[in-house]
Amino acid sequence: MLKSNGYARQLPIHHNRLMEQMLSFPTWFKASPVFAEFVAIFRVSGRLASLLLAFFICGCTKTQSPPHTLLQTGSDMLPASIVAQGQILPAGGVIQISAVPGDTVEQIFVKSGDTVLQGQKLVEMRSEKVRLLQRQALEARMAEAAVQREQAIAQAQAQQAAAEIQVQQVELKRQALAEQKELLQLAEEQMLAAREILNRLRTIHSDPQTAEFMGDLEIQRQTIAVRESEIEYRRLQQSSHQMEIELQSADVAANLELSSAIRMLQFADQSRALDVLDAELKVVDEQIAAATLVSPINGTVVGVNATEGEASLQLPLIELAQTSQMVCEAEVYQTDAAYIRVGQKATLHSPVFETPLKGTVQSRGPLVGHPQLKPPNPLARSDYRVLNVVIQIEPQFAASAADWLQLQVDVEIEL
């Protein structure tokens, strides 16, 4: 039985070590008559007591209480206090500052214990310089693109203005054509009137009764007038036809020029070149932000896990914390947690403290899970469940606690 049991194999054989293990047993066991008998046997023969104690442990290990146990009981069988394992932490937790994996650490500006301000630069990464150069190049390209855009807009506006002038000239030509048509109509009327007069004169001249009143000279003059009116009419007719052709061509050209100018202006105004460069600039800014490691809080550097010149890994390079307020996160056995109340007093014990630290229960978490802290007793059970209890350390003990971040302590909560 002793050979097959793991606790028996782990039992220390040194006399003093065995006594320490016996004194770390739960109160309910130390108060039993069996424990008193083993102490008496231990004083007689440490070797014999070791064997008997190992035999006893082999039989009662499975019913042993976890390290988070009740220390005292009152007359009504209720616990007077509870002990558990806890860990000292800043109230706001430890903030881990990491870099992009594979980037190279150029320069570290802080060391452990330094006080930093929010926004203060902690580490300079090599990629930050590269990204800054990329940003400068993008800014130059954006400035050039902006100038080109303004020039394109100005050119399109000038072209649009010229096209609008052409459209106005077309309108003037259309008005001139309308006036020319009026002149053509007048010339036609004059030509017809001249022909009518010539016909009347010829009728008078051919009539014997009135022939003496109309000479050949008058008929010749009117014939000349008819020819002149016909020539003027044909001239105006040809001119009007030419003006119509020119007007149609000018109208088409002016409208095409105006449409082209409007499209160029829209294209220049809606150019995506600046938008693309602006998107690239935002990406570079994000990369710069990722490579620029600054402090997000006013606090203290509690850890520096980097060396200048080495590549960054998954581990955080810098660890920060605000140590003005400290807490202890205790893991209380699920059965004992039923007695925990906000406001209960707690005492934190550790050999590193000259005096125990005092605190008050701040909250109890609802999540039941496996313990994360190892119990100091190697023979203690491990198949139990705990709840997290946060204890606010009193301000006068915060400085002492801040020197021992993540220290595992014994916690005693008064009920």
Provide tags for this entry.
Helix Hairpins, OB fold (Dihydrolipoamide Acetyltransferase, E2P), 6-stranded antiparallel barrel, alpha+beta, 4-stranded antiparallel sheet, 415 residues, disordered N terminus
Report on the structure:
The chain is α+β, with helices and mostly antiparallel strands and 415 residues long. 49% of the residues lie in helices and 20% in strands. It is built from nine helices and 14 strands. The protein has helices spanning 6-10, 15-23, 27-30, 33-44, 46-60, 126-206, 216-269, 273-291, 398-402; strands spanning 70-73, 79-90, 95-97, 105-108, 115-116, 121-125, 292-294, 299-304, 318-321, 326-333, 345-349, 357-369, 386-393, 408-414. Helix 6 runs antiparallel to helix 8. The longest helix is centred in the middle third of the chain and has 81 residues, at 126-206. It is rod-shaped. The relative contact order is 0.17.
State the gist of this model:
The chain has 415 residues and is of the alpha+beta class.
At the first level of CATH, the class of the domain at 130-278 is Mainly Alpha
Characterize the overall form: rod-shaped
Helix count equals 9
> What's the order of the H and E elements?
HHHHHEEEEEEHHHEEEEEEEHE
**CATH architecture identity of the domain at 130-278:** Orthogonal Bundle
Rg over CA atoms, rounded to whole Å, is 53 Å
Main-sheet strand order equals: 2-10-13-12-11-14
Distance between the termini: 40 Å
Helix/strand structural class? alpha+beta
Number of strands: 14
